[in-house]
Structures are given as structure tokens and as C-alpha cells.
């Protein structure tokens, strides 16, 4: 480890992984409710379970991004982080806010209170005081890392990373605007949700992936930076107006159907570019890096993101198709593989690369780590196919034939059982990953080494 302030990343990664484990456990519980609907129905209703599942996902991914920034910015800027104290204060604020959200959701506290109660907006249910805390934490973070970069070396990686992180924070401000008109609410709501995951998060993803390729393959920085700029341009060009595919059926003008259809089909381009980038870098690479597990996660990230966010997003993005498939299990299939491929795998790749360095060890437990990748990736891929078949049948029965919603759900039970089984596989993969990252292998000391030490 070149810079002492990189140790900040360890606290962020550890907190993120704890939330990741909770997210998967709650997700498994949600999958179980699909097959046994009355489970905890009064103690912990499904809408609360789903809130915990989706919100913990967003929070742990953000913590992973922050940790990645605190790890790579010192190396790229060639100087220590401006203020480690601010970084730990930021983490404390985020942890307190997260605990506040969990307690508020679980026990349904302060219902209707404008400051303390939860809001009825998917992904943005956090109480106002938590949203304010998130903004304060984001400002502390941006001040800390921006000052570090401005006083140190500037690279394409840090420039793109800062652009993505600043845009991420500014777009979150729309979470405070909650108009009473539902169509207007959704219009601005997507400024946060879509422009995060299909816009500025892609910039963060591209920057972190470029850093990993630089370290793992040894390809010249100039080559990496050229690819990076192309990917970012494609992501912004397609992602911003691609927001229109969410405006099809909310009361927006009809021209959004064409704008959304055209530009959202182009959103496959940056994900294809990222996948091509990773394979070309490995092919051109001159370095035989010892951390093979980190390389596997990095390449797997681009492949699964291309299929999950790219192909599966394209499947139902045209308004003629979306008219029938909107809000079915096809959406769930796309969402699960897209988030897992693009952002979960990215964070796990960064953690796999950084943890041995942060703990001053050679890469360890790599076989277990790689096994965790195949378990998680296999489980999530099977889940995606399962939900795709379920969504196709649901679309035909519900939207074409016109069967009742609950009758259709009963017909999909076999698919929900298979989805639950794939969730178990993902959980096993998570447990293996946590073991691989946190439990160092036992050092084998030879007899000769023991004699020499004596």
C-alpha cells in the first residue's frame, strides 16, 4: 500500500459488504414470500421487505463507490487523501442514516410526519432527515476527494470519476422535490433513478473499471484513457435522452415514445464498449498479475452488465413491446441481472483487488473467491432466465388474454420456486466471498524457513 490514507477504503468496504449480506438475506426472504405469501405478513409486510432489499442495495453500492474512490484517488493523484477524519465522519453519517431508515421502515414509525416519516416513493422512501444527512455526507465526500485531485496529478480516471460523483450528488437533490401531481412526480423521480443507474453510475463504473484494467493488465495508460472517453461519451449520449423510455405511460407528451425508443436502444452501446474494452485490455496486457480473482470479477462484470443492462434492457425498451411487458417479471429479470452485472460485480472486483493490498498480504483464497463468482453469477443468470419466462407467460395471460392478476400469479408458482432456489445459490456465493475476503489463508511455513528464522 503506497499511501496510508488508502486504509479509509477498508472501513467503507467492510460496511458495504455487511449491507450486501443483509440485502441478499432480505431478498431471499422476499423470494420466499412469493411462494409462501403469508410469511411474516403482519410482522414484516412484503412492501417493507422490498424497501429494505432495494434500499440496502443502493446504499451498499454507494459505499462501495466511495471506498473505491478513497482507494484509487491517492494512487492516481499521487498524494494522500486531504482529510481522513472527514472521510470517517462521512461514513458515520451514512451508517446512522441507514440505521434510521431501517428502524423507520421496519416499525413503520412517524407515519405522515414530513420530517421523520418515510415517503411513498420507490427507492426514495427515506425520511427527509436522512436525505439531508445523505446530502451532507455527499458534500463532505466531494470536498475531500476534489481537493485531493486538484492538489495532485490529474488523470482521465480521476476526471471521469469526479464528474460521475458530482453528477450523482447533484441529481439526488431532485429527491427533495415531491409534487402532488403523480405524472410530474414521476417525471422528476426518474431524474434520480434513471440518470443515476443508466447515466452517471456508468461514468463511475467506467472509471473504476479503467483503474482495474490499468493495474491488472499493464496496458499503457494512453490506451486505457482513449477507451474511457469513448465509453463515457456513449453513456451520456444514450443515457440522458434514454430517460424517455420511462415516460411512455405516465402522461408525458407522445413524442417521448419515439425519443425513448430510439435513445434507449442505443444504451446497449456503452455496455458493449465496456465489455470489448475489458477483453481487449486483457488480450493486449503484458502483466501476469497474481490476483486472478479480481480479473475474473472485472471481466465478469462487463459480460453480465452487457447482457443484463444491455440485451435484457433492449428486449422491452421499445414502446410497442413495453406497452404489454411494462411492470411484469420481465422488468424484474432485467433489473436483477443489470444491477448485479454492472455494479455489484464492479464493487466486488474492486474489493477483491484492494483487500489483499489493504491487509498487506498476497492475494489469498482466490479459488474460493472465484467459486463465489461462479455461484453468484450462475444463480443470478438462472434467476434472470426464470423471471424472463415467468414475465413472458405473465404478459400473454394478463395483458393479451386478460386473465385476473392473482390467477396469473398462481400459474407462475413453479417459476417463483426456481427463483427462490437461485437466490439460495447467490447467498452461498456471498458467504464464500465474505470468507475469501476476510479470512486469510493459513501461512504454510517450511522447515527450512523455520530453521532460518531461528
Walk me through what this model shows.
This protein has 454 residues and is an all-alpha fold. It has 16 helices and no strands. It starts with 7 loop residues before the first helix and ends with a helix. Residues 444-454 have low confidence and may be disordered.
Roughly what percent helix?
A: over 70%
Give the number of DSSP strands: 0
Largest sheet: none
User: What string gives the helices and strands in order?
Assistant: HHHHHHHHHHHHHHHH
Uncertain segments: 444-454
Q: What is the mean pLDDT? A: 94
Span between N and C termini?
29 Å
List the helices and strands and how they pair.
Elements: H1 8-35, H2 46-77, H3 84-107, H4 128-150, H5 156-172, H6 182-217, H7 221-241, H8 255-265, H9 268-284, H10 292-315, H11 319-325, H12 329-358, H13 366-401, H14 405-411, H15 413-438, H16 447-453
Helix pairs in contact: 1-2, 1-3, 1-15, 2-3, 2-4, 2-12, 3-4, 4-5, 5-6, 6-7, 6-9, 6-12, 7-8, 7-9, 9-10, 10-12, 10-13, 12-13, 13-15
